[in-house]
Design brief:
Structural class: mainly alpha
CATH superfamily: Winged helix-like DNA-binding domain superfamily/Winged helix DNA-binding domain
CATH architecture: Orthogonal Bundle
Number of domains: 1
CATH class: Mainly Alpha
CATH topology: Arc Repressor Mutant, subunit A
Distance between the termini: 42 Å
Strand content: under 5%
Number of strands: 0
Order of helices and strands: HHHHHHH
Number of helices: 7
Shape: globular
Largest sheet: none
């Protein structure tokens, strides 16, 4: 009898969430998922889950954002038991498909002109949006 795991990151709670406040943990993950959904990234893509995990990791461990390829992608890869290259490729594919599907919407989310945003731009905007929403909720 194994427990039902609702999210692939359930086994990595201490790594993903250094704080123990359950409300804070769920709020961060919910905010990240809302941001990714707002980009119109399809939820069946691996990049969707990888991007949400990357946002949560980046919020809870800001030092990971200093080097995406050396720190963040390997951290996400360890959660999903895959390679950092696969993480980067799947996130990039998810962003590219969203840009192809509805370029005008993606353009409206970013406040500057961009054809296809870089992963670092998506992460940066996601974290800033989550941070600002937290301030507004106070």
């Amino acid at each position: 009898m194994s427990p039902i795991i609702s999210h692939p990151t359930a086994h990595h709670t201490e790594f993903l969430y250094p704080c123990t406040n359950t409300v804070h943990i769920k709020r961060t993950e919910l905010d990240a998922a809302r941001f990714v959904q707002n980009l119109h990234i399809r939820s069946h893509l691996k990049g969707y889950s990888y991007l949400i995990t990357a946002i949560v990791l980046g919020k809870n461990n800001p030092h990971l954002l200093s080097s995406l390829t050396q720190l963040l992608y390997p951290a996400v890869a360890s959660v999903y038991n895959t390679t950092p290259t696969a993480v980067e490729r799947n996130i990039r594919t998810a962003i590219d498909l969203a840009a192809q599907h509805d370029p005008e919407h993606l353009q409206s989310v970013f406040y500057y002109r961009t054809r296809k945003p870089y992963i670092s731009e998506v992460l940066s905007l996601a974290l800033e949006t989550i941070r600002l929403n937290a301030y507004e909720a106070m």
